[in-house]
Amino acid sequence: MVYFDNAATTRVKKEVVEAMLPIYTENFGNASSTYTTPGQNARRALTEARKTVAEAIGAEEREIYFTGCGTESDNWAIKGYAVKNKAKGNHIITTAVEHHAVLHTCQFLEKNGFEVTYLPVDDEGRVTAADVEAAIRPETILVTVMFANNEIGTINPIAEIGALCREKKIAFHTDAVQAAGAVPIDVKAMNIDMLSISGHKFHGPKGIGVLYVKKGIRLDNLMHGGAQESGRRAGTENIAGAVGLATALKLAVDSMEEKTAKIVAMRDKIIDTILAEIPYVRLNGPRENRLPNNVSICFRYIEGESLLLSLDMKGYVVSSGSACTSGSLDPSHVLLAIGLPHEIAHGSMRVSLSEENTMEEVDAFLAELGPIVKRLRNMSPLYEGVEK
Hints:
Largest sheet: 7 strands, mixed
Helix content: 40-55%
Structural class: alpha/beta
Strand content: 5-15%
Order of helices and strands: EHHEHEHEHEHEEEHHHEEHEHHEHH
Radius of gyration: 22 Å
């Protein structure tokens, strides 16, 4: 099997597993157990993990809160800020191409007295600071714009949007689940107030996430119960998960330059070859200013699911878009938002690489892809008409 679906999830690195194992077998105490040695050891490990995450994104240790996943982090940031600050206003700005963890949260708030503006994007999936500024109203309290799109890889001008929000005194949240560990992040320099991360996107474990909350930003709690995470996120801490996430993030950040060069070379080889050798295709998202590991292509006159299944039979794991909506028969909301008609959006393929992939795998994949596309098109009455 050749795994090309790293935007959906990643293999946990050996170093990460080794860092987590002692938490299960030796330092297994409850970090809230104040006067026991196992509890103190567990708390020390949790503190060190928090410090490591903070250093990786330019934050302070006390601004890092561990959650169960990126979805929880998005929900907490948006719901928590909206409810806590409703007296200041009830208007939220986001984009039409956000992950459903953001879109569905905003839709929930619309049912509970809030108004949401869903900004359109350009044909490459980008929103600008000027777009955000044009949507700001006196009652606007929160802007939430994803750092990088999980389906088509477009990176948004986060620093510019953050600077605008800081100037307007509006809170700014970004879903950085796909960006963390892949591109440089500095929450202070980028004027980010809240930022969401998920461990399993950069070779960490599943079931652990992070919400960065800038000092001074006030949120209502999403989880209620105990006093964990400085009283802001109840529930016994997933210490092994936190240690694993921190270890994986540090590995990703420390090796970013070398890793990116390798991944970009593979990414560009795939894009260049497909565009040159297969007709009736479209690259989704920009050539530049996209995630290093992302290739999103639409093939006209075939169904994306047929392409995915055919590649799977050859031993290649790719996707048609977000894993969170893989059971849906509807075309991607992201592809529709950038202006693609349904019949083209249905023919999408996403390849997402990691540093564990090789150029030999890429070459073998490309050798299989062309014949598969040709075979599927030969079965299509639409393509038969085009050829004639």
